[in-house]
Amino acid sequence: MAGGAGLAKRLGTLLSGLLECGAFCGIIFGWASLVFVLKDLGYFEGLCQPSATPGPNLTLGSDCSGQDEQFSLVFTIGSFMNNFMTFPMGVVFDRFGTTAARLIAISLYTGGTLLVAFSTPELAVLLFPAMSMLSVGGILLILTNMQVGNLFGNYRSIIITLYNGAFDSSSAIFLIVKLLYEQGLSLRAMFLFLAACSAWHLLRTLFLMPRSRIPYPLPPNYDYGLQCWGRSRSYRAHKDKQTPGEAGPEETPLEPPIARGGDVPGTPFRACACSWLFAWHVAWLSVMQL
């Protein structure tokens, strides 16, 4: 991608991805704010029992520990799915590419928001699949966004860190939902709006994301989006213009050289999974998740 149009497209991908991570991907971690709204609407209220201990004014109150346990269980399952499904979702992303992974994520996210929108105190059990779908859809969206850093060369690590921060900041969305609810906006209307935002996710998938993956380092004149599935037209044109045996200026090969016999040398997955480097990474991440 060369010229102002290329820079504009990369910036559009960066900023739209930042908005996506900051407004949608990790909203489940703001669950405590949403619980306030759900309690006010009477979700799981049937689990409250009359308290056997009189209050300060000598009146019997309600023991809602069962209700609190249900809300805690919804969040526990949702946050567990956020971590547990990272590996299989990563396999989907590596195997089928960005477009397929994002379509799955958008479907899960839309389904989750619609389940919350059409849930009622009588159908409070819908919160269990809804939060799990929001969690898995969100983690898959951020997985597909991490590759955006590859578009910016030396700033790659900064972009990835920025997206991680936006993911954590998205927990504020449920706080905004709580504040809007206090101003009179219904829970159903707000979650229907979040479901409608899936159209924006879909447009971004088609126009501002690649079909497969963004390579690193970028090839010359790399392009992506709806007009160029896989390698860009400009990239293919650049290769076609070269005469046989001619190499582009300072071109970095995307694939390792093929050894004799046609086999591509590489490290097998089992060797990577059994390496000390991988083991220490797993140990470190396990400690960080405690």
UniProtKB/TrEMBL annotation:
The chain crosses the membrane at residues 12-37, 71-93, 100-118, 124-146, 158-181, 187-207. It is a multi-pass membrane protein. Keywords: Membrane, Transmembrane, Transmembrane helix. SUPFAM superfamilies: MFS general substrate transporter. InterPro entries: MFS_trans_sf, SLC43A3. It is found in: Membrane. Its main location: membrane. Residues 239-259 are annotated as: Disordered. GO terms for cellular component: membrane. It comes from the Eukaryota. PANTHER family: EQUILIBRATIVE NUCLEOBASE TRANSPORTER 1 (PTHR20765:SF1), SOLUTE CARRIER FAMILY 43 MEMBER 3-RELATED (PTHR20765). This is Solute carrier family 43 member 3. The lineage of its organism: Eukaryota, Metazoa, Chordata, Craniata, Vertebrata.
